[in-house]
Amino acid sequence: MFVSSRQETANGPRREFELGDEEFRFLASFMSKETGIVLSDHKRDMVCGRLVKRLRALGLREFSQYCDMLRGPQGHAEVENLVNAITTNITNFFREPHHFDHLRDQVLAPRLNERPRRPRVRIWSAGCSTGEEPYSIAMTMADALKGCDGWDALVLATDIDTNVLRRGEAGLYPLAALDHIPESYRKRFVRRAHEADKVQMADEIRRLIRFRRLNLHENWPMKGLFDAIFCRNVAIYFDKPTQRQLFNRYADRLFMGGILYLGHAESLIGVSDRFEAVDKTSYRRIK
């Protein structure tokens, strides 16, 4: 079986690249080993279409040549480009808004009421894509902590795709993105950009976020614990054993009682017993 990328010619479509069974199996195995991402057979068309530009950029004529490159000494350096091409990044501000209500009322408000001697809050956006999620977290945090001096507050935003991290760090978004941001937040935290039809996240919000590249399948350099972790629409790309390992590692990185937020199509049922459900796709660490 082959999946082809075609170009139109005067005589009709011609075959440009073919992704055969052997090459697809290798790419799927390579991605699984390097990132934990599972590429099932029904994603073959997607893989073929997204890697065509990369093959052209490298001057390669066949997928077999690309696979040979990944096997060779250049393979490690190419992983970042491969991952950037394959991964999907679809998001918007305040997606699944009930999570941000829960963050405000059940995570941040109780922390404020504790009045700790060293006030500190840490939230992790894992798989942050182009930044809409961590900026939504930061706006919620800035609003909740308004008037509370001395708080050490930070959002860690990580993704495996360096392209989306650069976009998130820039904090520039199209005007249409404002439709998903509550009006009170727009007035306080969003500015008109110098570029036409763009908006810029305010400096006070950008200062709350640290964008970093992180492969969830590898070692995590963070040492401290988090009050909450957002990992939404990420685990769906992993098989069950990888999910079990990932959620166990998340539990280790959360304070006892800390919250893990998942995507609407994800669940911990049959995957982890270290959390209890406390709201829609919101889970509290219990062990």
3D structure, described in words:
This protein is 40% helix and 25% strand. α2 crosses α4. The protein is globular and about 60 Å long. About 3% of the residues have low confidence.
**CATH homologous superfamily (4th level) name of the largest domain:** Vaccinia Virus protein VP39
Broad shape: globular
Strands, count: 12
> How much β-strand is present in the residues?
15-25%
Secondary-structure element series: EEHHHHHEHEHEHEEHEEHEEE
CATH class of the largest domain, please?
A: Alpha Beta
Secondary-structure-based class equals alpha/beta
Biggest beta sheet attributes = 7 strands, mixed
Percent of residues in helices comes to 40-55%
Q: What is the CA-CA span between the terminal residues?
A: 48 Å
The residue ranges in which pLDDT falls below 50 over 5 or more consecutive positions are 6-14
What is the number of helical segments per DSSP (H or I, 4+ residues)? 10
Task: Give a nutshell description of this structure.
With 287 residues, the chain is α/β, with parallel strands linked by helices. It has two domains: 21-86, Chemotaxis Receptor Methyltransferase Cher, domain 1 (Orthogonal Bundle), CATH 1.10.155.10; 97-285, Vaccinia Virus protein VP39 (Rossmann fold, 3-Layer(aba) Sandwich). Helix content is 40%, strand content 25%.
